[in-house]
Design a protein that fits this description.
heterodimer; A: about 260 residues; six-stranded mixed beta sheet; globular; B: about 525 residues; three-stranded antiparallel beta sheet; 21 helices; about 60% helix
Chain lengths: ~260, ~525
Amino acid sequence: MSETTPPVLEVCKVSKTYAGHVEAVRGVSLEVETGQLLVLAGASGCGKTSLLKMINRLEEPSGGSIMFGGEDIAGQDAVALRRRIGWVMQGDGLFPHMSVRRNVGLIPAMSGQDAARVELRVREMLDMVRLDPHEFGDRMPGELSGGQRQRVGFARALAGRPELVLMDEPFSALDPITRDGLQQDFRDLQAELGFAAVMVTHDMAEALIMADVVAVMRDGRIIQQGTPHSLMIAPADDYVSDLLETPRRQMRAIAELAQ
Amino acid sequence: MSDNLAERWAELPDLLAGHMLLSLAAILVGLSISLPLGILAAARPRLAAVVLNLASVIQTIPGLALLALMVPLLGGMIGYAPAFLALMLYSILPILRNTIVGLQGLDPVVREAARGIGMTARERLWQVELPLALPVIVAGLRTAVVWVVGAATLATPVGASSLGNYIFAGLQTRNWLSVLFGCLFAAGLAIALDQIIRLLEVAARDRRRGLAIGVGVALSALIVITIAPSHVPSGVFRRAGADMAQTGDRNDLADETIVVGAKAFTEQYILGAVMQTRLESAGARVERLDNLGSTIAFDALRTGEIDVYVDYSGTIWATVMNRPEPVNRHAMLAEMTGWLYAEHGILALGGLGFENAYGFAMARDRAEALGVSSLADLAAHSDGMTVGGDAEVFSRPEWVKTRDQYGLGAMQTRAMDAAFMYGAVRDGQVDMISAYTTDGRIAAFDLLVLEDPLGVLPPYDAVILLSPDAAANPELVNVLSGLVGTIDSDAMREANRRVDLNRETPAQAAGWLLEHLRTGPGADQ
């Protein structure tokens, strides 16, 4: 790795043990490159959310190391680190007492930019997530639909020009049509801006459709990591096969209807 | 009645200012303690448990008791300091509790979002956690405001003037207009402050600068209107009775300020006004501190917070000197005088000339029907009878000994405010009361004070007491000595009757009494 640019994110043999001896993550390693979307898939309790939260130090690993932009995050100021990493949560995580404008402008404002530049950035970001700044800027989160709120969530996460975006089940609370549109828009955004992303989901179809790389987790370990294509043609074990079976069966059923 | 109304209005600026200064300071200091403490405790469950329990214990202490407790805790200091301290403690719990509950009750998703996007602890607190918890915190603040403004009326017995002066004095002198004044203005003040805080919250929540400025102006105006006049003496706000001060024929006490204390009943108000008039005609400036609790008055004299008040030999004997057995009145006066001077440097100037003892009184017709004229006759009828009395008498030796020595153990006791007991025995709601022997209502309601053949009830000579500092002032001693031995029981009873039954003000009754002293006994009416 001396010649090529290093991966944006390198997770190396990371483990996490909670008090009470629950081993949530056991020696996980993975890499994410610029422009890439890695999806952590698996049932709830498999350790995927714990792994995600260790990347921006919402939780501290019990062992192993995490390198971001070529530097070990353990030695970095957690607040400064988080400002360089976008964070999107399930159910949007918008601040209900702040307008759309204030939510989106938070990170630029906190980093000390003047009001005019913050406003410019807010408009740019709202345009980018396809929300009219004039129509939505002054609305409160409670006045938006679920899909609109999640778009604002993306705009807030991207406003600080992050090199990496972390997402915890960002689409799970949305209706299927909204979800489909938003998934595509997200990949378009990523192609345009070139950030790396790690997304957690329990929806295997979503993982297959969106990911560059899927990492399937079970009991704190990655049991298979590869492109969606490689998973489909060669599942590592019965567990992965079972996970893939649901989307497969749905596809077959829909295909039969068309005949 | 219109005189009464005018006098109540004249008192308003001082009392409202006192009430406002006390309440606002208590709430502001309480807020500045409880809000940071609540923020610290919200993230520390053990600290939260400790401070909440502590604050709850304070809250369970009745307001009046908490205020009274502050006096000995501050070494006998009376007035603003103990009242402020008690009310400040009182304001802590609701704000503290709501701060902790409000912060702990925030949506964990929102808390995590704030951390996840890279806000510092300070930014999270100020931009996310406090704004979201604000409605709950403000609800606590509003509760505190209503409690404190209400409880500040109880500051009167510890010597801090507040709207409670209207209520305590009005209750004692059966001046219901005065009581109503106190209640209405205290309630109005509480409602006004409560609404101002509510509107400030709305302004903060909706970021309405105009509303915030408007409410800020309203609050400032309220503060200025209530507090300023008492510091700007003007013809408009002159105190009732102040005109008495102007014409001094002698100026022995010129430029001296004398604080005259009084306990919370009619006779004390009248005697306070009598001493005030005498001192003012000698050129002194007099401040009055009425409605002091019984032992608080003595403590205040001991520490020099007040210069002079009238107490009763039997009270000092039993509650200050802690003597179990009464002795005859001359021995008691002599021994009390020596003891007070030796122990505290307090000068007992001498008896005013009357005795206001506890005496057990029945309605005359009922006593005659039962053939009762003395406490000794009563035992045979005592089963099922009820005796009414003020809050302290039933725990005092006077009742305990009367009950034991005359065999009245079967009687029920019923504590009530002294203002109500004479009417209660007249109307048969109780069978007997622990009357004060100088009360004008004994004669007016045709009550019979039962004889005490065993001599159980101690003597209660009214005595002028001077603080150590005041005792060292020969002019002051000289002026007040002129009152010693001049007021007999009949004169005192008549003065009391004028207030309690004729609805004269204590100042008017004092004027009558002084005129009566000048023209000599028997010259009036």
